Amino acid sequence: MKLVFASNNKHKIREINHILDDRITLLSLSDINILEEIPEDEPLIEGNALFKARYVYNATGLNVFADDTGLEIEALNGLPGVHSARFAGENKDSSANISKVLSMLKGITNRKARFRTVIALIFEGKEYLFEGVASGTIIDDKRGNEGFGYDPVFLPEGREFTFAQMDLSEKNKISHRAIAFEKLKEFLRQHTLSDIR
Ligand code: IMP
Predict the structure, then answer these.
(1) Is any atom of ligand 1 closer than 6 Å to the C-beta of 162?
(2) Rounded to an integer, what distance in angstroms lies between the CA atom of residue 39 and that of residue 35?
(3) Which residue has the CA at smallest separation from atom 11 of ligand 1?
């Protein structure tokens, strides 16, 4: 079955291909010739995910899903949240984003944070939302070279290694995105492909 993933982020497409069954053919935005950047200006993660999915659905009529993720830091009242990608500026610079977070947390002992992913699916014209959460803490120094974004400073609850110190299959056992995508996969299994494991 063909399904559009409203993204061109190679890291994410790799992660998701790892999670979804082989019999689902994921199409990226460039695969369906949507080359413009879809705006992400909504005030909530849910709104951004829905906006992106509706944008593709309205343009193509294809089954489509979109995701949006934020890092929600308790002591910063949920920031960077929906602003995670551009927290330190429009160029989406991960190390500048990390530096900004670490400087805002200087002297603060509550380091609790969570990644939250919301997937919006439009399937046969109906809309569905799936959520995944990974809880943990923000550490002071960057550790590891895997992954992307805030991974080097995010220590998942009960773990010794940051997301950036884990390989993809390890991260996919516990990540916010993996949890949300397992829910999507289960939905697809029940609604379309009874033979998908
Ligand atoms: P997006 O909505 O998935 O594009 O995520 C927004 C921003 O959140 C990204 O640009 C990253 O800075 C951050 N982010 C999302 N997922 C992850 C992750 O798995 N690890 C680290 N940072 C992430």
Answers:
(1) no
(2) 12
(3) 149
Structure token pair of residue 86: 């551009």
Look at the alpha carbons of 180, 183, 185, 187 in this order and tell me if their dihedral is positive or negative: negative
Structural domain boundaries in the chain: 2-190
Of 191, 174, 190, which is closest to residue 19 (Cα–Cα)? Answer: 174
Q: What was the pLDDT predicted at 193?
A: 55
What pTM was estimated for this model as a whole?
0.91
Place of tokens 């790799």: 14
- Tell me the catalytic residues: 68
pLDDT digits (tens, 9 = 90+) for 43-74: 999 999 999 999 999 999 999 999 999 999 99
Q: What is the CATH topology of the domain spanning 2-190?
A: Maf protein (3.90.950)
Report yes or no: 53 and 46 within 8 Å, Cβ to Cβ: no
Counting ligand 1 atoms within 8 A of each CB, the residue from 42, 67, 71, 90 with the most, and so the one to mutate, is: 71
Per-residue tokens: 100: 């900004």
- In the chain the first and final C-alpha atoms are separated, in Å, by 14
